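We modelled the chain as a single entity of 436 amino acids. Its sequence is:
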Amino acid sequence: MRSIRNTMTGLAVGATCLCSAAMAGELTVATVNNGHMIEMQKLTSHFEKANPGITVNWVTLEEGVLRQRVTTDISTKGGQFDIMTIGMYEAPIWGSRGWLEALEFGADYDVDDILPAMRGGLSHDGTLYAAPFYGESSMIMYRKDLLDAAGMMMPDNPTWGHVADAAAAMTDKDNGVYGICLRGKPGWGDNAAFLTTMANSFGAKWFHQDWKPALDSPAWNHAISFYVDLLNNYGPPGSTGNSFNEILALVNEGKCAMWIDATIAASFVTNPEQSKVADKMAFAQAPVAVTHRGANWLWAWALAIPSGTKQADDARKFIEWATSKEYIELVASVNGWGAVPTGTRTSTYENPNFLGAAIFAEAELKAILSADPSNSTQDPTPYTGVQFAAIPEFQAIGIAVGQQFTAALAGDISVTEALENAQAAADREMRKAGYY
């Protein structure tokens, strides 16, 4: 019997979901409302059939709300969830604090098949605390037909200047086509994540070696000014509210000629069942300015078990199923190899069926393998991480700074004011935490 209950909302979970985490045989999973997670919910009946007595309840949230909800729940030991969808920022920090169960699976799971970048980013001191459901870097996705019509080409490693020229050439506002779409919605994992990679390539960094914030630098000003001008001139209206799903919808409708975002989007924009321009898309590596370092992010949406859940054994069974080779093959059998979750396993990129179906595979893997969290800025820094600084305080700092970037994009304040405010907010958090 199919027994998935799904709450598609950014609001507080109702009483049924709040108590379900404590009920024997029921797992409550908090996840993000991205396409691969939605598909996982549809396929969960296969898991339930193979594991009689276990049912799965879903709390599906927009990614900014998800981050907030799971952080609050685990830090307060709220116990709402048996499985949480988290990423490379949370997994090592929460694992080191004892907030997550260590993950160990059977030999058939083949943990060594997980891409080293993903396994390492989800571990602390060699212990895996979250299993990657899909992994990603970031890259350029663009309309080759429009670029060809404009008489331009896209190099594999273009400069931001070339990207701006391409955006200008492909913009056709009279026909509802915008040259470029980029994240504008505030959040440490939203606009701040994208803009960190952009700023990295302009030579910026979050912190100096003494941990004092470096957001008041000319490099940050150059990057954010470039971004604001780019979107105001060639981006769609309402960019301040756009995150992954909003832009994906615009691209699939043929309204965005170019998008720089998560590599996982490639499987959606090339799917003819979802995209009107599936056969027109092409790919390149993320743009650069003065350096290639940190120009493309590294991330995994991963499944983890909060410590203290009474359903740890059943939760581990579900995670082992949902992140296995067999799950990838299940998705392929239902939806085709071009639709499988990617960025996690070496075997996926060695599978000729996947390589034949996914025109983006080479570009995606190249981006993932090129991201280096230990060497992501032009100048030395005291932190690791590409699109974030891997310290507990970064979440609050990233949220505050992202709000300033959105205000600058909206024209409510100048870029200089936004960065002054961002510098002050970061300084307050770092002083409060005792870094200096």
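As a brief sanity check on the tokenised model: The chain has a mean pLDDT of 94. The chain has two domains: 5-135+298-357, 138-296+366-432.
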